[in-house]
Design goal:
Blueprint: H1 2-20, E1 24-33, E2 37-45, E3 50-57, E4 63-70, E5 74-82, E6 84-91, E7 96-104, E8 110-119, E9 132-182, E10 194-200, E11 205-206, E12 210-223, H2 227-237, H3 254-260, E13 277-282, H4 285-292, E14 301-305, E15 307-312, E16 321-327, E17 335-382
């Protein structure tokens, strides 16, 4: 009985050794390596395997480089200017994925034949799966760095000078209040039927603690002896209109209400009882001269009748010298014309106040710290059946 058991063990041992000496085909194929290209194949091998590599360049040309690498970076075999490799044996010390690289940096392509076999160490690894899969691998490292750490707070006094508005007032400034006589043209005795009134708007001021600005201005033209009584009616009509403007200071005329744009319609004399006048408002002396010489003229406001009025609030027209010109087209009768104009001036007054406040700022000290850094990457690993 003992002899039979010994004989059986010997037979199994012999079979195992005989099996281990039989190579297992992993890959056999033809492939091309294009110009300036690399072809790479990946296979898993078990610990104790022997890799048997056969390679042929079909045209007998030299391939620049062949490498067999145990991943991730251990080169197990490398050769240069290779046209053939026969039965190259590579030992596999541990289970791992191997890369077979065929490198061609030249401009000439290659057609190759490749055969890869594995010789298992024992029957236990005979059916080893040579496939591979991706696995996420995490790498932990430690970085030493210096950081600022808050250890307290300091209150820093800060003094600020702040410019603040003290008052904002609006006042009316009278520019014209004239009763002028405009002569008739005449048939025999030729008189000048044109009159021009000139006035200058208050200049805007920009000082450190005080500003003055003309917001708008307005005018009123009326023909006839009853112009003053018509003006009195305008006063009654607009008496309460300016009260809507909280910042207004002083006694306001109807022109103030008009210039402030509070929505009033001024009265002019009845055209059944008085003559007419042609009037025009000019911003430049050259246009005024055209009117006064009887030429075709340009004006930014004009009118014809027993009177008229207007409001101007464009900033560029609220500064400098202005002209209101009159023309009497009556051949025999001279006329009396009331002309009034006033501006609305806003005055702002400031003062500088000194304030002290505290700015809370953190206080830091440098502290050495160790920071853990975790990175990940993908690796090829053998498939575990």
């Amino acid at each position: 009985m003992k002899n039979r058991i010994n004989l059986l063990l010997c037979v199994l041992a012999f079979a195992n050794v005989a099996f281990a000496q039989s190579p297992v085909l992993v890959m056999e194929s033809s492939f091309k390596v294009k110009a300036k290209d690399t072809v790479c194949y990946y296979f898993s091998f078990a610990a104790g395997d022997q890799i048997i590599l056969d390679f042929y360049e079909s045209n007998g040309l030299d391939l620049k480089q062949i490498e067999v690498v145990e991943l991730p970076y251990v080169v197990k075999y490398a050769d240069f200017k290779v046209s053939s490799v026969e039965d190259k044996v590579i030992e596999v010390p541990k289970t791992a994925v191997y890369a077979f690289k065929f490198i061609n940096p030249t401009i000439v392509g290659h057609t190759c034949e490749l055969k890869i076999q594995r010789k298992p160490k024992s029957y236990a690894t005979a059916k080893f799966n040579t496939s591979w899969t991706w696995k996420t691998v995490y790498d932990t490292s430690y970085v030493y760095q210096t950081e600022d750490s808050i250890v307290g707070y300091d209150s820093i006094p800060i003094v600020e000078n702040v410019k603040e508005l003290v008052s904002d007032e609006i006042r009316e400034q009278m520019l014209l209040d004239n009763m002028v006589e405009v002569k008739a043209k005449g048939i025999v005795k030729k008189d000048d039927p044109r009159v021009c009134l000139t006035f200058t708007l208050p200049a805007n001021k920009q000082e450190e603690l005080k500003t003055e600005q003309v917001l708008a201005w307005a005018y009123w033209v009326a023909v006839g002896k009853n112009a003053n009584s018509v003006w009195s009616k305008n006063k009654d009509l607009t008496k309460s209109a300016v009260k809507q403007v909280a910042k207004f200071v002083g006694i306001a005329s109807p022109l103030a209400a008009l210039a402030l744009g509070v929505g009033v319609d001024l009265i002019i004399p009845d055209d059944n009882n008085v003559d007419n006048v042609e009037y025009a408002v000019f911003n430049t002396a050259s246009y005024k001269d055209q009117f006064m010489s009887g030429q075709t003229y340009r004006a930014y406001q004009r009118g014809f009748g027993t009177g008229g009025y207007g409001r101007i609030d464009e900033p560029k027209l609220c500064q400098g010298k202005k002209y209101i010109c009159l023309y009497n087209d009556n051949m025999h009768q001279r006329i009396r014309v009331s002309v009034k104009a006033s501006a609305i001036v806003e005055t702002k007054t400031y003062k500088v106040n000194r304030y002290e406040r505290y700015d809370v700022r953190p206080r830091y000290v440098p502290v050495n710290r160790t920071k853990m850094v975790v990175n990940s990457h993908e690796e090829r690993v053998p498939v575990i059946d």
